[in-house]
Amino acid sequence: QSWSRGMSYCLHSESHLDTGPIYVRENGKLHVVNRGAGGVQNVTPKARPFSLFSRTFSVELCMNREDDRARRQRTDHFIFTYTKEGNLRYSAKSLFSLVLGYISDNVDHIDSLIGFPEQIAEKLFSAAEARQKFTEPVTGLRALQKFTEAYGSLVLCSLCLRNRYLVISEKLEEIKSFRELTCLDLSCCKLGDEHELLEHLTKEALSSVKRLLLKDNSLSDAGLRRLTAPVRVLKKGLENLLVLDLSCNPKITDVGIGYLLSFKKLNCLDISGTGLKDVDAVIKRLQMQIGLVHSKVPLKEFDHSNCKTEGWAEQTVLQWEQAVMEAMKPQDNLRSRVAALRFYGKTHRIEEVVKCTLVEPETKASGNLQFYKENVENCHLPLKKEVAGSHELKNNKKRALAEQERERTSKQKHLCLTVEDWDLLNTY
Questions:
Q1: Contact, 168 vs 161, CB < 8 A?
Q2: pLDDT, averaged across the chain
Q3: Which of the chain's termini has less CB crowding within 10 Å, N or C?
C-alpha cells in the first residue's frame, strides 16, 4: 500500500510530463502502472515498438560544408597579398571587377551585346574565356554567338584549323558562328565535297573571306561547283576571294578549274597536285580570262606557316584543341585491355592521326602550278630566295639585279624613281 501511495503521488505530482508506461518488477512478476486508474495491474504488457521520438518529430539534415563555387564567391571579393614583414594583407576588389566576374559566370544568359562598348566587351570575353565558359557544350555556343553577332571580326578575323579535323567535328556549330573572317585555313582536314562546313562557306556570314586554303581536302569538281555556285549565279558568296589554295586534291580536273573563272578578284591560285589532263591549256585559260600568270617559283602566299588564329577567341580555339586531345588520351581500363591483348599475342590496332605532307607525289609529278596576277603587291614574291634562283643565279646575283634595275629605270623614266626607290618598293 505504501508503494502504491508513493507511486500515485509521483504520478500526480509530475502529471505534466509524458513519461509513457512504467513497468515495475515485484515478486518475480512484471507489473505495468495504469495512470488512468491510478493503480497497478497484474497484466503482462504487450510488446510495443519502442519509439525514441514522437510522431510529430521531424529531422532536417544540414551539411556543415560549402561547395567550391560558394567558397570561391566568398573569397573572390578580396585580393590577398603579403607585406614585407610576411603578414597577410587583403584589400577589397573594385565594383567593376565584381560585376565583371558575376556577368562572366552567367554569360550565357545575356540577351544581346549589340551596341555595348568594345573595350568592356573584350574584358568580359577574356573573363569568360578564363573560366572556360565557351568550352561547355550548350551554354558555350549560346554565349559565343552573342559576341560574334555583335562584334564580328573582333572576336576572330583569322582562323587556322590546319590538320584539326577533330576540332571541326566536335565544335562545328561554334566554328560556324564566327562572322566576318578574312582568312580561313582548312588544309589537311579531309572534308570532302559534302561536308557541312564547306556548304557554310557559301553563306553571307563568310562573304568577307579573302584567303581560303583548302589543301588536301579530297575535293572534286562537284565540290568546286557547289563552292562557286553562289558567285556564278547570284554574284554572292566568296566574291571577295583573293587567295585560293586547292593543291593536293587529285580529283580536281580541267572541268573544275573552269568553275574558278568566276572569281574575278582572285590574285593568287595554287592548283599543284590536282588531276589536270591538259596543263598547258589550263595555264592559257587562266591567263586569258582572269589574268593569272603561271609562277616559276613558289609564292609566299601559300606558305602555311604565316596563317594563324587571330582575335579575342584565339585562346578559346586552343582550349577546344586541348579538350579534344584530353579526350583522346588512353584511359587506365583501356591500357589494361591492351596489355591483355599483347599477352595473348593479339596485335593492337593503333589509329594514327592523318598528317598533311608538304610535298605530295602528285605535286612532284605535275610540278608547281601556282598563279599570280601581275601588277599586284605581295602576290609575286618568291617563298625563299634559295628556291627562287638556281645555283647559277646565286653566283651572278649582283649582275642580275643590276640588269633588272636598268630595265625598270628605262621603262619608268617618267616616274623619276631612282634605284634606291625601286629597292625600297620591292621590300614591301
A1: yes
A2: 77
A3: N
> Is 91 a domain residue?
no
> What is the Cα–Cα distance from 232 to 240, expressed in whole angstroms?
13
Q: What is the pLDDT of residues 276-305, one digit of tens each?
A: 999 999 999 999 999 999 999 999 888 877
Grid coordinates given for 159: 582562323
Residue pair 283/294 in contact (Cβ under 8 Å)? The answer is: yes
Q: Is residue 15 part of a domain?
A: no
In 3D space, the residue among 213, 208, 225, 220 whose CA is nearest the CA of residue 189 turns out to be 213
In a domain, 424, yes or no: no
CB atoms within 10 A of CB 254: 16
Beta-sheet pairing, 183-185 with 211-213 = parallel
- CATH of residue 196: 3.80.10.10
- Banded model confidence at residue 365, pLDDT cuts 50, 70, 90: very low
Q: What share of the chain is helix, strand, coil (3-state, %, to 5)?
A: 45, 10, 45
Q: What is the pLDDT of residue 155?
A: 96
pLDDT average, residue stretch 218-246: 92
Number of domains in the chain: 1
The sign of the torsion formed by the CA atoms of 152, 155, 161, 167 equals negative
Kindly state whether residue 225 falls inside one of the protein's structural domains: yes
Query: Does residue 335 surpass a pLDDT of 50?
Result: yes
At 309, list the grid cell: 588564329
DSSP-based three-state secondary structure for 176? helix
The DSSP symbol for 346 reads P
Question: 182 lies in which domain range?
Answer: 156-309
What CA–CA distance (Å, rounded) separates 415 from 417?
5
Share of the chain above pLDDT 90, in %: 46
Q: Whole-angstrom Cα distance, residue 156 to residue 180?
A: 8
The string of pLDDT tens digits covering residues 144-164 is: 999 999 999 999 999 999 999
Extract the C-alpha cell encoding 385. Answer: 630566295
372 bridge partner residues: 268, 293
- Measured CA to CA, the distance from residue 171 to residue 322 in angstroms comes to 12
